[in-house]
């Protein structure tokens, strides 16, 4: 059983949803983001989404874009991000790791080589923002062979008929992009989520993670109950960014302030 | 024309049903946008098949855009170059001063058919922005134009025009503040406002069906050239030259000639300070295939797949990518892609102005610079057509600065 499957079925027994924090690799530098990554499971992360920095993240908002640029400035490469996962796996064999990024760095690395190396490094799932179902054959075969889940994105704009198409052959979990917009801007209301989820549940038995616009512990709690997981990204990055020096360097409170916020989110999800 | 494009082996039949030209093209957008892209594809198919749509478009082309644009024999330039006869396809005489209105007029009619109430667009030099703001004024639609902050600074007259036309111009400070960043920002706006907003792409790039749709609307240029050159010379030209940023004016003049093998098609990229200077916009000469802004195409990128900033003296050419159909035409060898430096373009700009009394956009000055290289080596009975895609009023400040003149 994959780590993703194992984690969701364990949580189902526990009777709660998952909390999935996001961090941008190399933001603001390799050591700090690795330290953050390593501290996350103990603070309540049930799985972790790692952003692969890209120069042109056109589906992300200003917070994640700034994080990506800091990461690139710190020397982030796809190979470096895989190394980070490898380093994380030396201390943690259980927490599922999902890489999220844009297609071009993967394409440049080579789709097959990427899937082989990602699986070897200990990656469990991949989210490629600008690779819709129509173009997924680029990675599908290699990912399947290496036991990696290509996480399917579903949006409020995804129609009923299309839902069946995009979920055909999906694995891991389904990522519900809860708003029509970019990351870290608006939030979906409880009512909107309550309306959207049954439609999704009808189309898939996979766990549904809800992301985009989840900021507060209260929102994380709601999303993890209506869905199966809440993904929090921009809110954590904002906290991290606020601890950096004017030159963008980490300070003594960089890791601890994010971890503190994560603990509050985790407590809400568990309450 | 219809006969040729219905042949399965016609070079004009692309893209395939996946929106690809060979390995290029496709629709690489976020899932949120995918249903919109498919809806657009359907709406465009229906429009294309509807004679009423073509009739409406022809009406606006004739009475609003000012088509057909003349094919001008540049006699003094020809004499100065001392070789092939040089003709200019005068797209700069279109309303708003460039070829951009051909595409914008077509897309705005599609947007209206789709019932969209608001238009977003990206612009580099401002030609596409001005054209978009113009049709939004004409049809009473809300309009937001994203423009790199650097470009807002160097293209002030066009910013003022857009404002006069009632558009909101949003400067983009992310990245280098140029066209690539404006494109990202326009896509973000589109994702956030999918319900009522139409994304009016200005070049033959972006997710399918944009490269096809923009090409179709711009193909009026080449279709007219065919007829006009037959009338003037009784034969097709030996070469067609056009400048390339994203490549819409070039695709527009190339496409009707794709199956006419004897007509050499030459796209001119902006080399900027030189192909090996690191300050270039020549995506085909110095890039490699990758995925950005919804399509697979030649891109300026580093070895890790991060997109690099493009540089050109012309704000309209400094895009790190190129339309996917051009990438394909390059790979199959049907079109030739060359490059011209900032300095060569500046020189050509002045030659054109002096010999023909036409101030060209810096974009087309790149095309002209290449014409100046090849025409003297050709026979006097040979013919080159240059797509003079825009007028240079917007560029006089840039040119003045490079000539050391203070305006």
Automatic annotation (TrEMBL), chain A:
Xref: InterPro entries: Aldolase_TIM, RibuloseP-bd_barrel, Trp_synthase_suA
Pathway recorded for this protein: Amino-acid biosynthesis; L-tryptophan biosynthesis; L-tryptophan from chorismate: step 5/5
Superkingdom, natural source: Bacteria
Listed Pfam families: Trp_syntA
GO cellular component terms, semicolon-separated: cytosol
Record's keyword terms, sorted: Amino-acid biosynthesis, Aromatic amino acid biosynthesis, Lyase, Tryptophan biosynthesis
Catalytic function, reaction form: (1S,2R)-1-C-(indol-3-yl)glycerol 3-phosphate + L-serine = D-glyceraldehyde 3-phosphate + L-tryptophan + H2O
E.C. numbers: 4.2.1.20
Keyword Lyase: yes
Catalytic residues (positions): 49 (proton acceptor), 60 (proton acceptor)
GO molecular function: tryptophan synthase activity
Family classification: Belongs to the TrpA family.
Chain's role: The alpha subunit is responsible for the aldol cleavage of indoleglycerol phosphate to indole and glyceraldehyde 3-phosphate.
Assembly with partners or alone: Tetramer of two alpha and two beta chains.
Protein name as catalogued: Tryptophan synthase alpha chain
Source species: Swingsia samuiensis
UniProtKB/TrEMBL annotation, chain B:
One GO cellular component term noted in the UniProt record for this chain: cytoplasm
Domain of life: Bacteria
EC number: 4.2.1.20
Keyword match Amino-acid biosynthesis: yes
Family: Belongs to the TrpB family.
Xref: NCBIfam families: trpB
Protein name, as recorded: Tryptophan synthase beta chain
Source organism: Swingsia samuiensis
């Amino acid at each position: 059983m994959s780590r993703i499957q194992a984690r969701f079925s364990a949580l189902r027994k526990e009777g709660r949803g998952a909390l999935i924090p996001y961090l941008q690799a190399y933001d603001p530098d390799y050591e700090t983001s690795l330290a953050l990554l390593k501290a996350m499971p103990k603070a309540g992360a049930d799985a972790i989404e790692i952003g692969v920095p890209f120069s042109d993240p056109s589906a992300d908002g200003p917070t994640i874009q700034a994080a990506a640029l800091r990461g690139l400035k710190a020397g982030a490469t796809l190979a470096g991000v895989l190394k980070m996962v490898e380093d994380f796996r030396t201390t943690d064999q259980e927490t599922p790791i999902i890489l999220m990024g844009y297609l071009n760095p993967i394409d440049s690395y080579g789709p097959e080589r990427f899937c082989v190396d990602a699986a070897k490094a200990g990656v469990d799932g991949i989210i490629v923002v600008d690779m819709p179902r129509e173009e997924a054959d680029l990675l599908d075969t290699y990912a399947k062979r290496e036991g990696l889940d290509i996480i399917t994105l579903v949006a409020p704009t995804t129609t009923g008929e299309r839902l069946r198409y995009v979920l055909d052959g999906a694995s891991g979990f389904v990522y519900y992009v809860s708003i029509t917009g970019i990351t870290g801007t608006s939030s979906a209301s409880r009512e909107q989520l309550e309306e959207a989820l049954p439609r999704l549940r009808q189309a898939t038995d996979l766990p549904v993670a809800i992301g985009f616009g989840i900021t507060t512990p209260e929102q994380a709690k709601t999303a993890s109950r209506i869905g199966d997981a809440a993904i929090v990204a921009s809110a954590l990055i904002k906290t991290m960014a606020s601890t950096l020096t004017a030159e963008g360097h980490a300070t003594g409170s960089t890791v601890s302030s994010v971890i503190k916020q994560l603990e509050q989110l985790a407590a809400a999800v568990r309450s | 024309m219809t006969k040729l494009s219905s042949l399965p082996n016609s070079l004009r039949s692309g893209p395939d049903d996946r929106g690809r030209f060979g390995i290029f093209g496709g629709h690489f957008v976020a899932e949120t946008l995918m249903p919109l892209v498919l809806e657009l594809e359907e709406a465009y198919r229906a429009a294309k098949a509807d004679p009423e749509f073509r009739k409406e478009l022809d009406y606006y082309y004739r009475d609003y855009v000012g088509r057909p644009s003349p094919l001008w024999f540049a006699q003094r330039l020809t004499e100065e170059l001392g070789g092939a006869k040089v003709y200019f396809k005068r797209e700069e005489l279109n309303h708003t001063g460039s070829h951009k209105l051909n595409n914008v007029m077509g897309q705005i009619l599609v947007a209206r058919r789709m019932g969209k109430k608001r238009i977003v667009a990206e612009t580099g030099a401002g030609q596409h922005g001005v054209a978009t703001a113009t049709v939004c004024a004409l049809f009473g639609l809300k309009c937001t134009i994203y423009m790199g902050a650097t470009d807002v600074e160097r293209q002030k007259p066009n910013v003022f025009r857009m404002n006069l036309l009632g558009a909101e111009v949003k400067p983009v400070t992310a990245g280098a503040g140029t066209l690539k960043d404006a494109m990202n920002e326009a896509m973000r706006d589109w994702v956030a406002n999918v319900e009522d907003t139409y994304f009016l792409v200005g070049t033959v790039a972006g997710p399918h069906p944009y490269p096809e749709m923009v090409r179709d609307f711009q193909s009026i240029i080449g279709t007219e050239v065919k007829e006009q050159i037959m009338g003037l010379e009784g034969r097709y030209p030996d070469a067609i030259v056009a400048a390339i940023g994203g490549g819409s004016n070039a695709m527009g003049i190339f496409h009707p000639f794709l199956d006419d093998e004897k007509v050499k098609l030459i796209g001119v990229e902006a080399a900027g300070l030189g192909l090996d200077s690191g300050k270039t916009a020549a995506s085909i000469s110095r890039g490699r295939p990758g995925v950005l802004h919804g399509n697979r195409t030649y891109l300026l990128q580093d070895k890790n797949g991060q997109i690099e900033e493009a540089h050109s003296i012309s704000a309209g050419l400094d895009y790190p990518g190129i339309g996917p159909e051009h990438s394909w035409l390059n790979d199959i060898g049907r079109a030739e892609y060359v490059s011209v430096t900032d300095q060569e373009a500046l020189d050509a700009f002045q030659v054109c102005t002096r010999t023909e009394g036409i101030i060209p956009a810096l974009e087309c000055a790149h095309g002209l610079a290449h014409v100046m290289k090849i025409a003297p080596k050709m026979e006097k009975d040979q013919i080159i057509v240059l797509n003079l895609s825009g007028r240079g009023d917007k560029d006089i400040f840039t040119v003045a600065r490079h000539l050391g003149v203070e305006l």
